[in-house]
């Protein structure tokens, strides 16, 4: 989900993408060209784009290259809110390809399909093997398919049903009836040893509007992207304070991202080798990465840096590991000049303009810079708070949080932050933080 934010496919113009979709399969340069063309057409919504994608959806070819492109086309038409695609996507529910069926069900939900015939067809698919029951149930819930409510309840009552499917049923029943029950199961799924299921749990909590589970979400070892989404989805900027969950405190905790606050697998290794834990920072399972971070921050800084010196180039090639490395810098006592220089080099590397604005390590690089080189922070803070130059709102929020941390630790004077009065902040959540600091420190 998050990887989609970092477009690694070769760029295509709209005309090039349209041309590829008109090219016969045998004349394609690569079998992946249809998928590539659809991916890029998603950036160019227009009647012409919709027509080209619909032609691909109508295709009866069973060739793998066509099927892969068709799956993406169905997804894109749903996101584009192309209502005229509903009958053709509905027809795709009869496909023998379970991935096309899954994408079709989810796209029809995105399109708000109200056709009972299609609701019944998706409901009947729940009885067939090799179908993604979770996706089908989520689709019915989002479409508020009341006609299929009894079937969803029947599935929920089945014994030995995977927890992820039970949770999808809880959300669907809630969406259809307006009653949220068995909320504890949504919480249980957050503890899954499977990272994808933990991510699914967060999406279920968002879909169910179960805002009371925000404190649990914040302790779940997954990418910060998903935790941020939960907070801003369930705690809007005009949030009713009577619900007693602070938006600012929630976002602050994501900035700090303290590994010891995470609900980690209690059965993780007792290994004590430094190199092992450094390698675990590269593990795609955030459960293991946070655990490694919690161990590494306890190691003597000088010893640890001598080990890290062997890994700098490897870190630069791994976005997830970079995220944890930058956090780790905050816990180290870095006194050696060459170590400080290397840490600052890595922070500067993360903040390079060549990276997309929303890379998850960028906010952490801003925050960690106050621990490595305060002059570097002061030299860049104005640009970091400019929404025209720094487009990712969470990076700007983090820069404001860093200022607040400096004030609390008497490392910055109030005269140095008077410029905040002149900041024009476009994002409601970053503006909350900005106003909080102004009201607390500059107007008090």
What does this structure look like?
- The structure is a single chain.
- With 444 residues, this protein is an all-alpha fold.
- Among the domains are: 1-113; 300-442, no CATH class.
- It is 59% helix and 0% strand.
- It is built from 25 helices and no strands.
- Helix 1 (14-21) packs across helix 2, helix 2 packs parallel to helix 4 (64-79) and helix 17 (286-296) packs parallel to helix 20.
Query: What structural class do you assign from the helix and strand content?
Result: mainly alpha
Average pLDDT figure = 93
Report the biggest beta sheet as strand number plus sense, adding barrel if it closes: none
Our measurement of the CA-to-CA distance between the termini, rounded to an integer number of angstroms, reads 43 Å
List the helices and strands and how they pair.
Elements: H1 14-21, H2 33-41, H3 47-58, H4 64-79, H5 86-92, H6 98-110, H7 116-125, H8 133-142, H9 149-156, H10 163-177, H11 183-189, H12 195-207, H13 214-217, H14 224-234, H15 247-256, H16 274-280, H17 286-296, H18 301-308, H19 312-315, H20 319-329, H21 337-350, H22 361-372, H23 374-384, H24 393-408, H25 428-442
């Amino acid at each position: 989900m998050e990887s989609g934010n970092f477009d690694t496919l070769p760029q295509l113009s709209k005309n090039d993408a349209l041309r590829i979709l008109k090219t016969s399969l045998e004349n394609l340069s690569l079998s992946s060209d249809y998928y590539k063309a659809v991916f890029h057409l998603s950036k160019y919504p227009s009647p012409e784009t919709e027509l080209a994608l619909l032609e691909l959806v109508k295709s009866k070819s069973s060739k793998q290259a066509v099927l892969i492109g068709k799956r993406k086309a169905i997804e894109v038409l749903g996101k584009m809110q192309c209502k005229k695609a509903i009958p053709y996507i509905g027809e795709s529910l009869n496909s023998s390809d379970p991935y096309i069926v899954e994408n079709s069900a989810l796209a029809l939900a995105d399109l708000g399909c109200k056709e009972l015939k299609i609701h019944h067809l998706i409901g009947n698919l729940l009885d067939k093997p090799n179908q993604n029951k979770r996706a089908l149930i989520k689709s019915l819930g989002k479409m508020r398919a009341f006609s299929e409510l009894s079937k969803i309840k029947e599935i929920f009552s089945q014994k030995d049903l995977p927890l992820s499917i039970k949770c999808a049923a809880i959300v669907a029943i809630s969406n259809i009836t307006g009653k949220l029950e068995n909320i504890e199961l949504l919480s249980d799924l957050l503890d899954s040893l499977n990272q994808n299921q933990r991510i699914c749990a967060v999406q279920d909590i968002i879909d169910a509007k179960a805002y009371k589970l925000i404190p649990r979400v914040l302790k779940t070892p997954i990418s910060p992207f998903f935790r941020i989404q939960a907070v801003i989805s369930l705690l809007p900027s005009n949030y009713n304070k009577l619900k007693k969950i602070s938006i600012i405190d929630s976002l602050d905790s994501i900035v700090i991202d303290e590994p010891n606050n995470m609900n980690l697998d209690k059965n993780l290794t007792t290994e004590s080798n430094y190199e092992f834990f450094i390698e675990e920072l590269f593990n795609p399972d955030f459960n293991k990465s946070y655990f490694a971070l919690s161990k590494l921050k306890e190691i003597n800084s000088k010893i640890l840096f001598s080990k890290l010196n062997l890994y700098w180039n490897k870190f630069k090639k791994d976005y997830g590991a970079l995220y944890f490395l930058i956090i780790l810098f905050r816990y180290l006592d870095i006194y050696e000049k060459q170590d400080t220089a290397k840490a600052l080099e890595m922070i500067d590397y993360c903040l390079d303009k060549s990276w997309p604005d929303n890379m998850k390590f960028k906010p952490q690089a801003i925050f960690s810079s106050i621990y490595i080189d305060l002059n570097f922070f002061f030299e860049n803070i104005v640009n970091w708070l400019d929404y025209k130059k720094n487009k990712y709102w969470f990076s700007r929020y983090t820069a404001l949080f860093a200022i607040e941390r400096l004030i609390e630790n008497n490392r910055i004077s109030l005269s140095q932050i008077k410029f905040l009065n002149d900041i024009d902040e476009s994002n409601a959540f970053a503006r909350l933080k900005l106003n909080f600091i102004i009201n607390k420190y500059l107007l008090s």
